[in-house]
Amino acid sequence: MKRRIELLAPGGDIDSIKAAIVSGADAVYCGLNKYNARNRAANITFEDLNGILRVAHRNSCRVFITLNIIIVESEIPDLIHLLNKLINTSIDGVIIQDLGLFYLLSSYFGSLKIHASTQLTTHNKGQIKFLGELNASQVNLSRELNMNEIKALTATAHKINVLTEVFVHGSYCISYSGLCYMSSLHGGNSANRGRCSQPCRDQYITTPQGVDFPLNLKDNSAYSDLRELSIAEVDSIKIEGRIKKFHYVYMVVSSYRKQLQSLYDNKYISSDKSDLYKVFNRDFSNAFLKGDINRNMFIENPRDNSATHLVELNRGISDEAFEKVEKEFYAETGKIRSFIKSRIDLLNIAKAPLAITISGKSGTPLKVRMETPDSSFVLFSETDLVTKGTLPLDLKMILGKFKTINESEYFIEQIELNNLQPDLYIPFKELTSLKNRILYILKDSKETYLPIETPVLKGQRDVKVKATISVLISSQKDLNLCNESSADIYFQLPDGLNTRSSDLIDLFIKNRNVIPWFPSVLIGEDYSAAVELLQQVQPKLIVTNNTGIAYEANKLGISWIAGPYLNVVNSYSLLCLKEKFNCSGSFISNEINRQQIRSIKKPDDFKLYYSIYHPIVLMTSRQCFFHQVIGCEKESIDAECIETCKRSTTLTNLKKVSFIIDKSRGAYNSIYGDTHFLNTDIVTDIPGIFSSFFIDLRDMKTETKAELDKSKIIQLFENHLSGSSESKQRLHQTIHPTNNTQYKKGL
Question: In the chain, which residues have pLDDT < 50?
Answer without folding.
Answer: none
